[in-house]
Design goal:
Blueprint: E1 25-26, E2 32-37, E3 40-45, E4 56-57, H1 68-79, H2 86-89, E5 105-106, E6 113-115
Parallel strand pairs: 1-4
Antiparallel strand pairs: 2-3, 5-6
Length: 133
């Protein structure tokens, strides 16, 4: 719900019990996404999940659109735990925090700050890595 990613909000449409999926832990920035097909639920990785890494689902409160305090409060009330995922621990920003901010570019090699306009820069001034447009 919302006109753009900046002012969107999650809307819960229903609930279901999937015993296997219920074994996954919560993270406000999960590494999976669920899709429902009738009475079936498909869980897919949204990024590489390495061996011995936990599988994280999102229990309905996403850091992109929900304030940390609201996420924490709802998770404690409904699931009886305090979320300590990286998004909560490091207080990750929401989409609205980036609205109308100019992008800043960094060298992919040495992480040197290149500025906001890299069209004219061919090489990193620090490590001399070629920069592809």
């Amino acid at each position: 719900k919302g006109a753009s990613m900046i002012n969107s909000e999650s809307v819960e449409l229903g609930g279901a019990v999937y015993p296997t999926i219920s074994l996954s832990n919560h993270a406000c920035a999960s590494n999976t996404a669920r899709t429902n097909f009738g009475t079936y639920c498909c869980m897919r990785a949204t990024r590489t999940i390495f061996p011995n890494e936990k599988i994280y689902d999102n229990y309905g409160k996403f850091y992109h659109t929900e304030e940390k305090e609201a996420r924490q409060s709802q998770l404690a009330l409904q699931y009886f735990f305090d979320c300590t995922c990286p998004a909560c621990k490091n207080n990750w920003p929401q989409y609205k925090d980036f609205a109308r901010q100019e992008s800043v570019y960094y060298c992919p090699g040495c992480k040197y700050k290149l500025g906001t306009d890299i069209k004219k820069i061919k090489k990193c001034p620090r490590c001399k890595k070629d920069l592809k447009a």
